[in-house]
Amino acid sequence: MDENYDVIVLGTGLTECILSGLLSVDGKKVLHMDRNDYYGGESASLNLTQLYTKFRPGQSPPEELGRDRDWNVDLIPKFMMANGEIVRFLTHTDVTKYLEFKQISGSYVYRSGKIAKVPANEREALSSSLMGIFEKRRMKKFLEWVQNVKDEDPSTHQGINVNQQTMTEVYAKFGLDAGTQDFIGHAMALHLDDNYLKEPARETVEKIKLYAASVLRYGKSPYIYPLYGLGDLPQAFARLSAVYGGTYMLDKPVTEFIYDDSGKVTGVKSGDEIVHAKQVICDPSYASSKVRKTGSVVRAICLLKHPIPNTEDIDSVQIVIPQNQIGRKHDVYVACVSSAHMVCAKDYYLAIVSTIVETDNPEQEIQTGLNLLGPIHEKFVSVSPLEEPIENGTNDQVFISKSYDATSHFETVCDDVHDLWKRITGEPLVLKKRNEEEAA
User: Fold this and answer.
1) Can you tell me the mean pLDDT for 112-134?
2) Do 122 and 168 belong to one domain?
3) Which secondary structure element, helix H or strand E, spans residue 421, and what is its range?
4) Is residue 206 within 8 Å of 81, Cβ to Cβ?
5) I need a surface site. Which of 22, 110, 202, 246 has the fewest CB within 10 A?
6) Local structure of 192: helix, strand or coil
7) Is residue 290 classed exposed, middle or buried when 0-12, 13-18 and 19+ CB atoms within 10 A define those classes?
8) Could you tell me if 110 and 368 are in contact, meaning their C-beta atoms sit under 8 angstroms apart?
9) What is the per-residue pLDDT for 73?
10) Residue 67: inside a domain
């Protein structure tokens, strides 16, 4: 195993697998290792036995839940925005040929104790139960402005400078009330907190455009999801890396990093073997002395025997509970998929409720989300640390990803991939479409 590589990647979480695939396509000699004997790391999908082994060691799954192979339970479920960055990663690398997708049937938001569909366009705004008649008209005008605003045509700006004026000022111009601002900012623009209100409006306007364009692509909601769960995503990028000469080693623990006299990494040690590389990319669990904890995320994986109430019995849904609605600093997310997505046995539904921990009673913090689910057949609760690198990696050439957050979408994961790529290569990530000869 005493070989030289350009890059060693440790951990097969989605972030690491995307980078491994992209670097291989870019001509780098990549070695990818994981201490686990399966792909996915924190973003793996588990069968029934693996699920019970992880959360209830020593307990076998009840027979009524069916066969192992009927279950692919995501540890960290996230949906894909149909026009979002993760889909661009997939299409530009041709990884889509390894995967099948199904639309998520609804996007809902919690307001005043009830859930309602998020209006994605002017027509839906007028029929939404979230607003009174006058607020509906104001919302319609706001969405029309967002859709029509073009940089090159000042007449579409309506006197608003999106690069200078804050979202608070934009909301004020359209007279939108606090509840409407909540679902625009959190369920459409998918902001994690209310700091965006003080920022220039440009980013939020772009995010709302992305949401609306993603809905237009398929109809019912902006989200899609791979059949058989997210566990196939890391494997798809691993296949891409292998096509371009990347080497994979599972079940290979890493005991230490090797450095030269100047403090730069030169390789990693696994048992008695050393592999050399100029750069190492890893998830936080491989470099505990180089990361800091920024918080924790609580997730409850719930098995249901029915669709989530008040969602018109659809087979899948995302629900965002904006933090202001329940007196919190962070939103609560509910993601639900079903046997239609090949992730659970027939007539079962999988719902995951998550948020950033704010108190010493994490499960209580997701209670509002749990209450929306109706009777829960089985529940598995976990609390995971949120970690990020202390340094950017340019000094020692060890580049560390961030932990997966509580959101039920991929936008923040893609931000991390872009950030890592720039730190690793010194250049912004430009997604190049592979030509036919390469793809063959």
Assistant:
1) 86
2) yes
3) helix 411-425
4) no
5) 202
6) coil
7) middle
8) yes
9) 95
10) yes
358 phi and psi, to 5 degrees? Answer: -120, -15
Please count the structural domains in the chain: 3
- Mean pLDDT, range 110-138, rounded to an integer: 87
| pTM score | 0.90
**C-alpha–C-alpha distance, residues 409 and 296, integer Å:** 18
- Closest to 71 (Cα-Cα) out of 36, 38, 47, 101: 47
- Greater confidence (121 vs 255) lies with 255
CB contact set of 34 (below 8 Å; sequence gap of 6+) = 10, 11, 12, 41, 249, 250, 251, 252
* Helix ranges restricted to H, 75-219: 85-92, 122-127, 133-148, 167-174, 178-183, 202-218
Per-residue pLDDT tens digits for 397-430: 999 999 998 887 888 899 999 999 999 999 999 8
The answer to whether residues 207 and 257 belong to one domain is: no
Domain membership of residue 51 (yes or no) is: no
CATH number (domain holding residue 63): 3.30.519.10
Give residue 409's pLDDT: 81
The CATH number of the domain holding residue 282 is 3.50.50.60
pLDDT at 435 over 60: no
Q: Where are the beta strands (DSSP E) in 13-55?
A: 30-33, 45-46
User: 278 and 301: one domain?
Assistant: no
Whichever domain contains 204, its CATH number is 1.10.405.10
Same domain, residue pair 158 and 73: no
Phi, psi dihedrals of residue 377, rounded to the nearest 5°: -75, -45
> Is 436's pLDDT higher than 70?
no
Dihedral sign from CA coordinates of 206, 208, 211, 216: negative
- Nearest of 52, 90, 59 to residue 73 by alpha carbon: 52
- The sheet carrying 291-304 orders its strands as 114-117, 107-111, 317-321, 332-338, 349-356, 291-304, 378-389
Token pair 């299409």 in the structure block, residue: 91
Cβ 334 vs Cβ 319: under 8 Å: yes
Residue 373 to residue 389: CA distance in whole angstroms: 36
Tokens standing for residue 319? 């629900």
Q: Looking at residue 382, what is its pLDDT?
A: 95
Q: Mean per-residue pLDDT for 167-174?
A: 97
Range of the domain at 242: 4-43+231-291+388-439
- Look at residue 440 and tell me whether its pLDDT is greater than 50: no
